[in-house]
Amino acid sequence: MTRHDPHSYADLTQGKIAHIDLHIKTDFDTHILKIEAEYRLEEPVSGSLFLDTVGIDLKQAIASGQNLQWEFDEQDELLGERLHLKNLDGVSSFTLAFSTSSVARALQWLPGVQTAGGQHPFLYSQCQAIHARSIFPCQDTPSVRFTFSAEVEVPKALTAVVAAEQIGVEERGESRIFRFKMPQPIPSYLFAIGVGHLAFRELGSRTGVYAEPEIVEAATWEFAENEAKIMEAEKLLGPYLWGRYDLLILPPSFPYGGMENPRLTFLTPTAILGTRGQTCLITHELAHAWTGNLVTNATWEDFWLNEGWTTYAETRITEVLEGKEIADLMAVYDEHRLFEVMERVGMDSPLTCLKVPSEGRDPDATTTIIPYYKGCFLLKECEHVIGRERFDAFIQKYTGKYQFQSLTTEAFIEFLKQELPEVIEKVDVYEWIYEPGLTENRSRPQSTLYDEVQEILTAYKQGTRPTKEQIADWHRYQIFSFLQALPVQIPVEDCKYFEAILELENKNDAGNYMYFYATCIASGYRESLPRIEEFIGKIGRLLYILPIFRAMIASDWARAHARRILEQVQERHHKITVHVINKLLEEAGL
Ligand SMILES: [Zn+2]
């Protein structure tokens, strides 16, 4: 057999899935989806077809009215179970009937008490990187794209959304049935479903927001500028080819900031600050509509093509919408974070390469921000040596030529060579991509707003605490920069002082706490522990809670609490969150 992707059993020489019709029935009592799926293949297949699954309870497989022979014939803790459809005889379509597991990796079933409204249950999926296989058997590799339709049956009080075009809704007894179609081919990791007590508000002619009624007005205000963002993104990246761009605001357990599900970004509610201060998260998810969703990494080893390009596009759009000063501040802050993470994993670790050999590695547990920022800095360097005008023309050519295709790093380098040979002469692209660390030989970001923070930090390290007035007008990213660059340990009195002058309690910005609580733990500020526990119990966003767990592991006094806190909150959080933190604790011998 030929494996094309270390994270999938798919053998693409056998044939490829071209389309799936999904009939999904949700069962909120058992936490199971009952699904009948009709698959259409690109070409008739004879012999075997391997599909990825995990925890799928297959009841029936039929082609042309005949039962198919099948077997789950290989299994692996990371990859799941290989579904082997056998002795196919020129089969071009088949139907599978199955149920998901009640602990399906992609699905988070929340009881009403864990939602904003407190009454109705909520279901949402997260398929990236390799969890679509826990919802339906598929070639779960980003190098296979298919179109689909979906019919989702839910209890009458609830609304179903799918990252696709909604084409109808009908009531049937105690149920409502929502119909969707996705005419643009997507890789499996971009399949997404959400069910909850949802309201919808228009934001613009192509944009809107789904959220629980309790937070929909706040979300509508926060993201009112989405239409303008699309127009700006189109100038940089080319026409938006997915029709609508809506948001689904999830409960706070969502493990990520956002997930770029096509037409319908899934978003953490921690992005609603009441200040429009974190809409760069939307800029990022929106940019994925081109870099990621339209031009897709062929395997998770090429992840930097998705995230590096998207982070680059995010910085460019932010520069237009928020000004160069803010974009520069964010760039310097991002550079500091990149160094922080590279130093943590080791400057010579293969994880600091852009192309990361990942056979046998769990993409959820090994993903860092490195492909995001190192990838972005590589593309900025390319822009720097060639000039913005020519690089912008290159971007449009890239998104146009490879639209609805999956791309390897090597194919990207070939394209770059062909289109911008001077870049290859001036930038050591191979070193950037295949070597660990970060080259000294590059243009560095500069920011006067960051320099202000640096001055205050230097004075603090010399014994002078900043006054409240000095930092009163700081931008959100200046506060982050300050908290990120504080010494690991500071006096407990200073923890209290900074908490007060930064007015963290009043800011409703969970982003501040990823650094602040880590500092509290390292500094032995024991009184903060109940608040830290409450925070971790509520917020599932890995970016925010991972640094806090890392600080606990590194601290003598808090170490003993880490396992207990995880056990306390694991029912509330998504399986990805629990899995990643559990791995971290296990590695630390906890
Ligand atoms: Zn991203």
Architecture overview:
Helices cover 38% and strands 24% of the residues. It has helices at residues 213-222, 226-237, 280-287, 303-322, 324-345, 363-366, 370-386, 388-401, 409-419, 421-426, 429-434, 448-461, 476-485, 492-501, 504-507, 511-522, 529-538, 542-554, 559-569, 575-587, and strands at 17-27, 32-53, 57-63, 66-67, 69-76, 80-99, 107-110, 122-125, 145-155, 159-162, 165-172, 175-187, 193-196, 199-202, 207-211, 245-249, 258-259, 264-267, 295-297, 405-407. Strands 1, 2, 3, 4, 5, 6, 9, 11 and 12 form a 9-stranded mixed beta sheet that branches. A 5-stranded mixed beta sheet has the order 14-15-16-18-17. Strands 7-8-13-10 form a 4-stranded antiparallel beta sheet, with no helix packed on it. The protein binds zinc ion. Zinc ion binds at residues 284, 288, 307, 310. Residues 284, 288, 307, 310 line the site of zinc ion (ZN).
Structural class: alpha+beta
Hetero groups bound?
A: zinc ion
Residue fraction in strands: 15-25%
Distance between the termini: 40 Å
Task: State the helix count.
Answer: 20
- Radius of gyration (CA) equals 24 Å
